[in-house]
Write a structure and sequence with these properties.
Blueprint lengths: L1 H7 L12 H14 L3 H10 L3
Helix pairs in contact: 2-3
Length: 50
Amino acid sequence: MMTGVLLSSGYESVNIPWARRLEFNQALDVLFTSDDATPLMAFLATCAIA
């Protein structure tokens, strides 16, 4: 549901490549253990279509 709301509000989708799943999971781990979303946001920015 959240994805639909974001897409309908004009946000672009982000594709997370399978080959980078470890990097994604490590960024999620930082978020969940320290409440710091900075590494996850930086990772997602590299996956966004320019």
